[in-house]
């Protein structure tokens, strides 16, 4: 304790312990990105010793990260067998994308009514940045901005229950959505659909935006199911 005068004292300031939390978050984000971008592919067993050496960390933050990613449905942890990247069945893929198409459509309907001019400008800026990534053949950059646009539309819907459901489902689909853009024609079709989204937002046409988003997600579903059926034909071209 530190005395202020003869009658009062104040507690010494407490320094928050944040390093472990930051390390934990960093490991989660790093592994999530590796799964999304296919560096760690579905079904791959996650070797703790190798990952610890590669990432330069101990097993404690790695195992904490595994728990978070397991809760998100990105990895599976089996007793006595360790962790592996989750693999979705065709039925799960179909059902999850159908659900996401409805969530995104509802997000679009609400966002068209509730989005501010500033939020619309931010989405348009992300769209132009996404176009630049397409020209540069930067798939990770393209995907990040693509996802940011969908995320901003969901945020602009200003519905907490919808937001939480959207985030939970989208985490399960992010790796599949990434893979669906490996072919140039799919990039270009997605860009065209995003241009239609921007136009519907500017016109505050929620019904049209909802329909565009629904079709956009169902097209993603079909692309992913095609890849799922023919995994060997799916390498990205340079």
TrEMBL record:
<keyword id="KW-0804">Transcription</keyword>
<dbReference type="InterPro" id="IPR000524">
    <property type="entry name" value="Tscrpt_reg_HTH_GntR"/>
</dbReference>
<dbReference type="InterPro" id="IPR011711">
    <property type="entry name" value="GntR_C"/>
</dbReference>
<dbReference type="Pfam" id="PF07729">
    <property type="entry name" value="FCD"/>
</dbReference>
<dbReference type="GO" id="GO:0003700">
    <property type="term" value="F:DNA-binding transcription factor activity"/>
</dbReference>
<keyword id="KW-0238">DNA-binding</keyword>
<dbReference type="Pfam" id="PF00392">
    <property type="entry name" value="GntR"/>
</dbReference>
<dbReference type="GO" id="GO:0003677">
    <property type="term" value="F:DNA binding"/>
</dbReference>
<protein>
    <submittedName>
        <fullName>GntR family transcriptional regulator</fullName>
    </submittedName>
</protein>
<dbReference type="InterPro" id="IPR008920">
    <property type="entry name" value="TF_FadR/GntR_C"/>
</dbReference>
<dbReference type="InterPro" id="IPR036388">
    <property type="entry name" value="WH-like_DNA-bd_sf"/>
</dbReference>
<feature type="domain" description="HTH gntR-type">
    <location>
        <begin position="21"/>
        <end position="88"/>
    </location>
</feature>
<dbReference type="InterPro" id="IPR036390">
    <property type="entry name" value="WH_DNA-bd_sf"/>
</dbReference>
<keyword id="KW-0805">Transcription regulation</keyword>
């Amino acid at each position: 304790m530190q005395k202020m005068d003869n009658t009062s004292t104040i507690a010494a300031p407490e320094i928050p312990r944040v390093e472990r939390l930051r390390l934990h978050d960093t490991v989660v984000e790093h592994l999530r990105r590796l799964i999304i971008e296919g560096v760690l592919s579905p079904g791959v067993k996650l070797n703790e010793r190798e990952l610890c050496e590669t990432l330069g960390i101990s097993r404690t933050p790695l195992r904490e990260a595994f728990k978070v990613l397991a809760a998100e449905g990105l990895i599976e942890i089996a007793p006595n067998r360790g962790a592996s990247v989750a693999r979705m069945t065709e039925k799960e893929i179909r059902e999850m994308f159908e659900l996401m198409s409805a969530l995104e459509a509802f997000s679009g309907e609400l966002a068209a009514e509730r989005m501010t001019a500033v939020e619309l400008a931010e989405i348009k800026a992300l769209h132009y940045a996404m176009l630049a990534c397409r020209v540069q053949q930067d798939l990770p950059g393209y995907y990040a901005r693509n996802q940011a646009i969908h995320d901003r539309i969901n945020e602009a819907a200003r519905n907490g229950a919808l937001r939480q459901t959207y985030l939970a489902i989208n985490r399960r689909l992010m790796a599949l959505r990434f893979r669906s853009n490996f072919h140039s024609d799919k990039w270009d079709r997605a860009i065209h659909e995003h241009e239609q989204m921007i136009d519907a937002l500017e016109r505050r046409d929620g019904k049209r935006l909802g329909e565009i988003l629904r079709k956009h997600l169902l097209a993603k579903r079909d692309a992913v199911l095609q890849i799922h059926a023919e995994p060997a034909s799916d390498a990205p071209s340079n």
